[in-house]
Amino acid sequence: MRALRNIWYMAAWPEEIEQGKLFHRQIIGEHILFFRDENGQIHAIGDRCPHRFAPLHIGQQVGNAVECKYHGLRFGADGACMFNPQGNGAIPKAARVPAFATTEKYGIVWIWMGDPERADPAAVPDFPVLEPDDYAVGHGYLKVNAHYELESDNIMDLSHIEFLHPLFSTEAVRRGKTSSSQEGDVVWSKRFISNDSLPSFLEEIFFLKPGTPADRWLDCRWQAPALIELYSGATPTGRPREEGHEAPSVHFFTPETEKTTHYFYGMCCPRSMGEGAQRRADEQTEAVRSPFLKEDLPVIEAQQAMIGDADFMSLQPILLPGDAGGGRARQVLARMIAAEEARN
């Protein structure tokens, strides 16, 4: 699969990788096996045994090694075979699987799909709304049968919420002022909606009195490969933004294959709200799951089915004002991939 390799991808929420259990996930076309060693540190190795190509994740963990279920070869965290129960026990030189660098930050497991020697944990992007001391974060996951850039486009252009999510919005969305900008390889896509009527659950999220006309903002910040922060907020119409309340969220898309994506999402609530912050974050994260699942996904997956194997840009899509931010993100990503391929 054509994708960036020397960059950090979100691989999992930490609770997905349990002590003593093997966890498998496909990332940019490669089958990866995750496990925790006896000290709880997470490791990632290739999931295909080099002997008869059985998946290692159907085997078992033995100490700090993974034992293949088929013929008992054991592989360590560095990918090398460390035990052969067959014959005289000699280990073939080629008996190894790839090893991938991992790190944990912001309550997220990250994986570096390129050269492990280049994997610097300090290169994980900054996400202030994921700082555990400052924010409680809900954890959500969905599998999407579509290319990951279609998912990025969906968040970067939120003009669709008027039509896909009628409970979220009104015709005020189409009257919103849009803008996009770029800071290095970071892309912003912003929409400001004035004098909107919000549903009761959004009034509750933004601490607005029932029936209060509102000014809303939807500010999306994109970073490669497909990591988006969405700053959604509102204030009574005409009041300064700093008087309003914001409900930030994260939307991280990790390509599984050319046509499937891991979608990790979470709502973020400031811990300054007190003991109820985590409960509120979990409730809001669960609340957005249904519209994602029942409204966004059917359209995006149908979109992918219509595109088929064609390159998206080769189909010459028409462009609307809201596409500016997503278009910039696509250009940045394409440039980064081309530059990496040229170096290799």
TrEMBL record:
Top-level taxon: Bacteria
Domain Rieske: 8-111
Gene3D superfamilies named in the record: Naphthalene 1,2-dioxygenase Alpha Subunit, Chain A, domain 1, Rieske [2Fe-2S] iron-sulphur domain
MF GO annotations: 2 iron, 2 sulfur cluster binding; metal ion binding; monooxygenase activity
Pfam families: Rieske, VanA_C
InterPro entries: Cholesterol_7-desaturase, Rieske_2Fe-2S, Rieske_2Fe-2S_sf, VanA_C_cat
UniProt keyword terms in alphabetical order: 2Fe-2S, Iron, Iron-sulfur, Metal-binding, Monooxygenase, Oxidoreductase
Name the UniProt record assigns to this protein: Vanillate monooxygenase
Organism annotation: Sphingobium chungbukense
